[in-house]
């Protein structure tokens, strides 16, 4: 990894951090995630890839998750690419859209949600 990649958060580092994320890229992917919530609690992180605040919140959340003893199934939604899926989440789960946003789902229902600086790994447990 080059010096500039290390400073500006290069691709290699991002690939390592993203390894625990399951990406939602279709309505079918969303349906599968919600179905998994009947087996165990899941969380969906809605992220705007062009927003500095969203990037900062995501980075901080990833650091928290790395240190979490309890493993949780985490889903990632790129809001710029998949806004229609975000709208479906809001409609189906009754959670107003925000960005960045963490939505915790259990048994097919949103049991917790937070946005911006209120996003924390504590909400998942």
UniProtKB/TrEMBL annotation:
It comes from the Bacteria. InterPro entries: BrxC (IPR022551), Thioredoxin-like_sf (IPR036249). Gene3D superfamilies: Glutaredoxin. Pfam families: BrxC. This is Bacillithiol system protein YtxJ. The lineage of its organism: Bacteria, Pseudomonadati, Bacteroidota, Flavobacteriia, Flavobacteriales.
